[in-house]
Specification:
Elements (H helix, E strand, L loop, with lengths): L3 H12 L2 H14 L3 H12 L2 E2 L2 H33 L5 H27 L5 E2 L12 H11 L1
Antiparallel strand pairs: 1-2
Helix pairs in contact: 1-3, 2-6, 4-5
Length: 148
């Protein structure tokens, strides 16, 4: 059973690597991939657990639903603030507030994904590669390169 706080710590540690951050944001912006899902799939593989394609497909649907309902609209507000109101005297405070709230929404998404994974029966596999069920091989290689 996955623990939310351990996954959050793992995700924050990986994302704090500047190269990993750039790769993940590229996946999100250029390929429409979900950062939290990429991190979760890698985390599960680090635990030597292999998911099925059906499991990953269900996780994709979960992530897409939360992106559509919460994260995408919030990111749009934050980007609009930056483009349209960056000279406002309260811009810095507003941006910080939005970033903090967005981080909480990211945690909510991670929690939902972890809850869903905890309903699955995973297979023990020391060569687990869950990312390959979500990303094309070239992106998997970019991820692994940034990770090392």
């Amino acid at each position: 059973m996955l623990k939310q706080d351990l996954f959050w710590h793992y995700a924050c540690q990986l994302y704090s690597n500047k190269q990993m951050e750039e790769v993940l944001l590229h996946f999100q912006d250029a390929h429409g991939k979900n950062v939290n899902l990429c991190l979760l799939l890698d985390y599960i593989a680090e635990l030597n657990q292999q998911l099925s394609q059906a499991d990953v497909n269900a996780l994709i649907q979960c992530a897409e639903k939360l992106d559509e309902q919460l994260l995408s609209p919030y990111r749009l507000i934050r980007r609009t603030l930056k483009v349209e109101h960056s000279t406002s005297p309260n811009y810095s405070v507003a941006r910080t507030s939005l970033l903090n709230a967005e981080l909480e929404l990211e945690k909510l998404q991670q929690h939902s994904l972890v809850e869903q994974v905890n309903t699955y029966s995973t297979l023990y596999n020391t060569d687990a590669n869950n990312l390959a069920l979500y990303l094309p091989e070239s992106l998997v290689q970019q991820f692994l390169s940034a990770k090392s």
